Amino acid sequence: MLIVGSHLSISKGFCGILKDACAIGANTFQFFTRNPQGGQAKDIDETDVKLFFEKAQNYGLQ
User: Fold this and answer.
1) Does the residue 24 lie in any domain?
2) How many domains, in total, are found in the chain?
3) Alpha-helical runs (H) found in the chain
4) In whole angstroms, what is the distance from residue 17 CA to residue 8 CA?
């Protein structure tokens, strides 16, 4: 299986990443919790993460 993905922004939360990945036809992705050039990491919303994992299985993301 060919795995196609991209680096995606965490700025819209994990469900935002899922939406962006599906929009570009990706079946995987990579994200950074903060800007790699420095800055503060965004707080992780546990509800968003839980919803992400539920939805990701439906989309077949790895």
Assistant:
1) yes
2) 1
3) 13-23, 46-59
4) 6
- Classify strands 30-31 and 7-8 as parallel, antiparallel or unpaired: parallel
Could you read off the pLDDT of 25-38 as tens digits, one per residue?
A: 888 888 877 777 87
The whole-number pLDDT of residue 46 equals 93
Cβ pair 61, 28 in contact under 8 A: yes
2 within some domain: no
Task: Give the whole-angstrom CA distance, residue 45 versus residue 9.
Answer: 15
Sign of the alpha-carbon torsion through 39, 4, 21, 43: negative
- Domain assignment present for 48: yes
Q: Which residues form the domain of 16?
A: 7-59
3-class secondary-structure state, position 61:
coil
- Report yes or no on 1 lying in a domain: no
